[in-house]
Amino acid sequence: MVHSRVNISEEFGKYVPRRVVIAREQSLYWPTVLSQAVLMRHTKSICINGFQNSGTNWLCQMTSQYFDIPIFEAWHRWTPSVLGSHVLHMHRFVVTAPMNERTIYAVRDGRDTMVSRFFKAAASPRQSYLRRQIKEQAGFELDASKIKDQLADFIEWDFNHAKRASVNWAIHVRKAHEIGYPIVKFEALKEDAVTVLTPVFERLSGQEVNKTKLAHVVAACSFENMRGDKDNFHKRKGVAGEWKALFDQRSRAAFAKYAQAELELTGYEEGDQWVNA
Question: Is there a single domain that holds both residue 151 and residue 38?
Fold first, then answer.
């Protein structure tokens, strides 16, 4: 059996260290991704890419339910998948022609992304290693109740320290634009996901979208419904513009220093007037 609804990683985690569980998942995930990167035109798999905390989990769910294609979840599997069709959830770039053609890129205002990253790092039990890194490298203990005081320093740390193999928000969104992925904005999805996804899904399928089905999928995948599962730290609030209440002058200046050009590239700002607003 290659697939199980039992959380295999959770069961293994009762007996082995977390790093062993992660290594097992990676040994299933990456062979699948790399084979799909070559064979994706034949499997009809779809890749959802985006910077962390940009709504990629949500977009994976809607894509999976509309096309009736399962999300590849290594924690439910015993083996990789070479030829099966899957929705692949990615934050890193694997650039091949087949994958480029079948990738949707989710972008979110980087300032809201930063707020979500802060809260997730401070609260998630799976982010303890990140909290240790911040304490060692930036010299403070992350505290969700002190976000206004700590956010500027967190932004400085986030843009200047590599986290495993990841890159910062500015580099990520610029790379997506350079590759030419079809891009959907998180905020536009929140406002009218059916309208936003219709042309994207038609491009992937080559067929007219069933808007009734898509509307049902969007409703089923609402943040209110999705936050009911136990991985709800991935789906904290999904509020657009939350950053405005939490960014002080230092935070605004810090983010603009590293990502003003990318805020303009992605259409979130037309200039730097917001820094001193």
Answer: no
Residue 59 shares a structural domain with residue 135: no
- 27-61, pLDDT tens digit by residue? 999 999 999 999 998 899 999 999 999 999 999 99
Q: Are residues 73 and 86 in the same domain?
A: yes
Q: What is the extent of the structural domain holding 104?
A: 8-109+170-226
Helices (H) and strands (E) in the chain, counts: 13, 4
The reply to whether 212 and 257 lie within a common domain is no
pLDDT at 165: 53
Average pLDDT, the chain: 89
The values of phi and psi at residue 131, to 5°, are -65, -40
Distance of CA 14 to the CA centre of its chain: 27
Tokens (6 digits) for 48? 């959802």
Token readout for 210 is: 């069933």
User: Looking at residue 98, which CATH number applies to its domain?
Assistant: 3.40.50.300
Query: Is 50:102 a contact under the CB 8 Å cutoff?
Result: no
Is the CB of residue 106 less than 8 Å from the CB of residue 54?
A: yes
Q: CA quadruple 138, 140, 141, 147: dihedral positive or negative?
A: negative
Task: Name the residue among 242, 244, 273 with its Cα closest to residue 260.
Answer: 273
Same domain? 15 vs 140 = no
Q: Are residues 19 and 135 both part of a single domain? A: no
pLDDT in tens, 124-157: 777 777 888 888 888 888 899 999 999 999 999 9
pTM assigned to the model: 0.89
